[in-house]
């Protein structure tokens, strides 16, 4: 059974590199119960059954972890901050799943539009993300197991008793030996880590890929602009460049509108994960629990990787777009001084100077590289406060 994808054969033949790499992402989305079916051809019954089965597994897993969190909160077995953090992660992941599910066809339509615009600008894609995406997906698949491995390597008695008490709702396994309890703990931790890591990471890779495709189109436009304008003899290229910039701008607006809310959810989740994990690592009360230390370290590494992928890929669009302004200024000094050329060029310059291709998270946070500095400063400040409060509590 081959999954159906929502792109036309004619467009996929124009840009086989982009669409073949996009297939990898759609296959991983199907594991989360999200099917990107053909726009004109309905999905096969087997495809619908597979998607429904995947969605059911995820719903059952979400229900299991949610009930475990509520049990911990109701019995006051763990701190309120831990319960609040886990509830927020589950709720945000659930909302993110709903958003991507409802906009799955729009993601495919966006890729088709970007590929079509790129074909008008340049016939060759310099974009080759297949190796990067394969590495990222290998990371996505294996990090839940890697995070759970400490439970097999060295599990202290307090960690074993703590986790199993939460997962089993206070039930004591008197007939299970230590090896059985460790295996059961490893299974529970892996399920929880998959819910925490897998789907948000797939969405991060999807946004990263679409931003890279858009950036490649903007870069191709900035490279072709001066060459086409300089060799223009009949003033035809200026008119075409204005038309192409309109298409490029439309693709970017669709990308920004489509990814703005998912990016805001992902950034909020990653920021909260960083602060929560930093609290666990710097708190002297939890330093004896080895499993929590390893989990927090993996949470921090995963959050930092997601932030790097989204912020860097989104900021590159704005950075590449700034080159078009320089090219317009240079072209305005070299073009023939006839009325049509200058009129169209000034129209293009007005578009470029007025618009700034800057990605945002729900219109609140600008995705620029300076965001890393702000994040680093806030993390250092927060870490110092945690250490001081922990020392004051000890004294």
From TrEMBL:
Gene Ontology MF terms: signaling receptor activity
- What is the predominant subcellular site recorded for this chain? membrane
Q: Which keywords fit this entry according to its UniProt record?
A: Cell membrane, Membrane, Receptor, Transmembrane, Transmembrane helix
Q: Which PANTHER family match?
A: GUSTATORY RECEPTOR, GUSTATORY RECEPTOR 5A FOR TREHALOSE-RELATED
Membrane topology label? Multi-pass membrane protein
Q: Which organism is it from?
A: Trichonephila clavata
Name of the protein in its database record: Gustatory receptor
Q: Name one GO biological process term.
A: sensory perception of taste
Q: Where is it found, in Gene Ontology cellular component terms?
A: plasma membrane
């Amino acid at each position: 059974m081959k999954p159906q994808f929502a792109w036309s054969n004619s467009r996929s033949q124009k840009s086989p590199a982009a669409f073949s790499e996009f297939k990898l992402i759609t296959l991983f989305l199907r594991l989360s119960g999200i099917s990107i079916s053909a726009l004109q051809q309905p999905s096969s019954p087997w495809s619908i059954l597979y998607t429904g089965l995947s969605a059911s597994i995820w719903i059952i897993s979400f229900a299991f972890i949610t009930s475990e969190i509520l049990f911990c909160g109701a019995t006051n077995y763990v701190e309120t901050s831990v319960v609040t953090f886990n509830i927020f992660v589950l709720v945000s992941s659930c909302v993110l799943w709903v958003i991507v599910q409802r906009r799955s066809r729009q993601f495919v339509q966006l890729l088709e539009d970007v590929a079509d615009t790129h074909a008008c600008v340049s016939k060759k894609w310099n974009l080759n993300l297949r190796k990067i995406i394969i590495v990222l997906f290998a990371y996505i698949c294996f990090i839940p197991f890697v995070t759970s491995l400490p439970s097999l390597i060295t599990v202290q008695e307090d960690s074993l008793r703590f986790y199993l008490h939460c997962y089993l709702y206070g039930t004591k396994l008197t007939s299970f030996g230590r090896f059985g309890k460790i295996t059961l703990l490893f299974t529970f931790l892996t399920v929880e880590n998959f819910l925490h890591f897998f789907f948000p990471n797939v969405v991060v890779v999807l946004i990263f890929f679409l931003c890279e495709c858009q950036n490649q189109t903007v870069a191709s436009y900035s490279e072709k602009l001066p060459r086409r304008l300089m060799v223009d003899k009949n003033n035809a290229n200026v008119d075409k460049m204005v038309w192409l910039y309109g298409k490029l701008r439309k693709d970017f607006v669709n990308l920004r509108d489509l990814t703005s809310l998912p990016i805001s959810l992902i950034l909020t989740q990653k920021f909260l994960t960083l602060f929560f994990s930093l609290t666990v690592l710097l708190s002297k009360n939890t330093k004896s629990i080895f499993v929590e230390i390893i989990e927090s370290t993996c949470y921090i590494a995963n959050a930092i990787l997601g932030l790097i992928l989204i912020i860097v890929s989104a900021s590159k669009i704005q950075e590449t777009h700034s080159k078009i302004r320089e090219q317009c200024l240079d072209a305005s000094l070299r073009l023939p001084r006839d009325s049509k050329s200058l009129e169209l060029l000034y129209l293009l310059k007005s578009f470029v100077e007025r618009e700034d291709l800057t990605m945002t998270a729900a219109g609140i946070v600008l995705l620029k590289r300076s965001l890393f500095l702000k994040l680093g400063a806030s993390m250092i400040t927060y870490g110092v406060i945690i250490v001081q409060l922990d020392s004051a509590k000890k004294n």
